[in-house]
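Input.
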Amino acid sequence: MSRDDSDIVSRLVFELGIVANVSEGQRISTTDNECLNICDDSLGTAISRYRYGDSRERLLASIEYRITLAYRLCCDLIESRYMGIYSDPLAKPNPDAVAKYTDRKLQLHRLISVLSKLPRGLETLTKTYRDNSFTVFRLNTMSDMTRNRILAHVNEEYKKIKELEFEWHVHNAHARSDPVYYADPALSQYVTRVTSDKPRPSKEDLLPDDM
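Output.
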């Protein structure tokens, strides 16, 4: 990813993290250069929100936009040609391709992690805004969309990407006589188990829980 794309992911993770970790009773403001921020219920804050046109509708639109953007970025990362470097067990990816794969996988993992926490924050906001049935409906709709559509899709695709990487390393480990050490503990455990004399384990038993 370019530096600009990485910055966009970082900002999205930060702002969606605000929504994901909001406490009951806290409100989120969009007045500061369209950024999402926690705000209090003081008179000064209320006047500032009124002056800059902050509203529940603006908040809902801002959260929905960020969820949609996060999903689009996830899809772009999943469809990147570098995510397929391990699809052929006989291929020998060059270091540059491996570095770009690793970076894209990291950014995808960051987005999935914050999206996984988001429904909890959205449900917390429904309690804060319980006086407005339409706001509660919109928040619940975003929560359901994130959990049942977005995460269902990106988690499945992320799992496929990880499985290809695991299988590539297993295939190549069989061809080596010297031990290989991996930074990813789950990958190290998986390769060790499947290349030993023990019965081959199920991938579902060894893939990381965050998949």
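Residues 42-54 have pLDDT under 50 and may be disordered.
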